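the two lines:
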Amino acid sequence: MKPLLQVNNLVIGAGGSCLVDDVSFEINAGEVFALVGESGSGKSLTSLAIMRLLGEGLSIRGGDVQLGSDSLFALSETQMNAVRGRRVAMVFQEPQSSLNPVQTIGKQIGEVLILHRGNAPDTAIIELLNEVGIPNPEERLNWYPHQLSGGQKQRVMIAMALACEPELLIADEPTTALDVTIQKQILELLNELRRSRELAVLLITHDMGVVAEMADRIAVMRHGKILEQAERSQFFVNPSHEYSRQLIHALPQPDDYLEYETHSPLLDVQDVKVWFPERRGVLQRVVGYTKAVNGVSFTIGRGETLALVGESGSGKSTVGRAILRLEDTAGGTIRFDGDEIGQLNQRRFASYRKRIQVIFQDPFSSMNPRMTVRDIIEEGMLSLGLGGTDESRETRIRELLERVGLEAGHLNRYPHEFSGGQRQRIAIARAIAVEPELIICDEPTSALDVSIRGQVLQLLQELQEEMGLSYLFITHDLSIIPHLAHRVAVMRNGQLVEQGETRQVMTAPVHEYTQHLLQAVPRIPEHA
Amino acid sequence: MEVFDVRLHLLWSDILIFLLVASLCAFIVTVVRNPLARKRWSQVFESRIGSASFLVILFYVLVALTDSVHFQKKLDQAGDSGEVHYAPEVTSLLDLALAPMLGRDEKTYSAPFAIHSFAKESMELPEGGVTRDYPRLEHGGSHLDDDSQHGADIVVKSMTVIGWTLVPVLILIFLHHSLMKKRSSRLPWPVIYFTFSAIVVVSSWALYMSQFYHVLGTDKVGQDVLYGAVKAVRTGVLIGTLATLVTLPLAVLLGISAGYFRGWIDDVVQYIYTTLNSIPGILLIAASVLLIDVYIETHPEQFKLLSDRADFKFVALCFILGMTSWTGLCRLLRAETLKLSQLEYVQAAHAFGVSRWRVIMRHILPNTTHLILIALVLDFSGFVLAEAVLSYIGVGVDPSMKSWGNMINEARAELAREPVVWWSVIAAFILMFVLVLAANLFSDRVRDAFDPRMSGSGDNK
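prediction for all of em together
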């Protein structure tokens, strides 16, 4: 059988550099082909080149793409427009920004239908929404995107992509912005669709778990080159390229649990509530509360890591912010080392700032772009009066940088000159500069590539051993928990549903929600 | 000692402009001491556009400065009472430099380089009878023996003065160039040389030629337009900078505190600027200017000289303009601060217990500089133009004060005339255009250099 899509020796360049170099692969009808790689490896560029949608400054330097019997690069722009949407459709990562917020979803799907088929009867739209699993499609036809959840928006995006019955669906990180449970649903939907429609899917992702669940064949990309192409069974059992092996091994071993030992308590949180008032009217009267955190209790011992797990909107980050006194609590007590800190004013809390620090999720917004690395690390030391004289502070900053795996020569650079992983190392250096006892890690690795993620987690663990740090590790990524956290607390809708030792929670979850979460995590077949 | 028979007479705006220059010098000293800031600023000057536009701005500022040293000339002793009397009008250093243009007034309009008046007049012929023709100008081209040499004379004189200025300029450049060979410098010297020689040649040409002709013609009452246009540089530069400097602290202080502290502070600030914005700006300015007029009328003892009154009105106008136009920038800064204070680096600073003042100074203010800079230049240009509008409705600077607005306003009626009187408008337009363009280009480079994300992207052209 002739493959549906054939990419032959594709070369994409920008200026003097070659971004995609000699890439060839093929996809058959009804097959899911995964293009795997870390950010910047050229996988999205490849998909854009297939659609001939490369941005300004990028150009196709060579090669050719065959869709069925047509050579896509030989088509005129008008002919290509007929291919886009009708024969090849795309689903993007961020459903939030892919839908127009001021049009109903029915209208947006209808637009695609009209463009390619000429008419858009409501029945056709309802059928599509039904197919992608949107409940009550008749009613939701007239809804606006903001009325839908993230998962539903992604379903709508898939419905739009399917509207013209394409032969090939390009899914560019379709589940990266979604929670695990939603991710599972979307992946199941894609799987079902390709079976029922004989759809070829080009799946672009960095998540090996998703690949293991979905793909029939896999290609690994790095620096614009395909390093390895293999069947799924072959790939996970016996990867032929060193880099593929690294990628697979960068994944934490699922049953490599940290030994649990008892620790003397450092932080004791009892029944903490964070309520955000809802105000209405001219006088801004408080008419009700959004209960972001509603009665959460846990303790963290010295040198212990507690993982706080939950989906987006569960209030886990707010707990962290409440402990840091960046948010006022509406009730409950927070005891740090025996002292009540939950109700202290900012001035009295200042002495605890040195002892409780934070590392944020996004390494791009957690550092002031106009400050040098030196200023960034120095800020906390200066503000809390640490580090002594200028010289001793300077040596300390250099030591810190070297400790987190950067060079002391980087001191005068700006954050934008570093990669995401390096920036996260700077953020870690900033936090440990004041020698804290507790660090609140708010999703510190979710913006990083797998291999970098492993390194950063490794660094955090080393620092824990050296300095006896305690971590409150806020995350939605269940796969990293086993070998990172001593204990786990699962959060949902502002409340803890379950907490306990990691091994116990992960292997024998008691609460229904925890079970549900764990099932949703994509699994990788056991590898040698 | 005839030269020293003068009395220094400082106007309020003179004092302000020199304070401004002093603080600018202090700023430069701090920049030179700070290696990082020095690197950033040298980036600005290493770009071709940056250094060229800076030279142009510098030239304008120099003209404005020389025009800001005012003094009164001593009058010839009339009586023998021994009392020393000084002239009622003030003169500036610039007036001395522009001496060739002074005291050469014609009767009315005349075109640039013309030797005949623009309007026909009835003249008595020597042999009797009356004819109607363009009269010969009294001063323009008065050195010509034969009127037919007019065209040739202009070319010859222009060539001579350009030649004579180019020689010392080229020697200077050559000397500097050979000196600089030993030191490495990344400044774009060819562009600097070119801009410098262009400025010197054009200004000395204009100065030399105005000994013989009215280079930019004369206005309705026969005054030299070039003189007026150059005198107006001070008004333009001052109204732009002073009014901007009044808006800046208000907008920055109120905007950032509203966005950062929120709560009742935000409510109060929003209330103020909404109220201010709902009153038509022109009305507010006109009302304030009339108040100032009344004040001047009722306190004549404070304003001994005519120029004191004009100057007081001018400074007041700068403040009024500034006070009424900070709302736009304030609103922008409030929104930007609202956004910035939610960013994780501000949260991280809070987690370090960094004081609010320091958070504002280190995290929020530097990240709003691009907005401030853009607003600053747009405001500067806007104020220079607003002055023209205000002069039009009669609430602008005092008519006795030279300004581009007044020039345009006077020439406005004559634009409908056939043949058109174009030189007043064009002169004001060109001088205004060059200043506003240079300011815009310069601020563009400054913004690029101070945005760390932009540096290194090969933008240093």
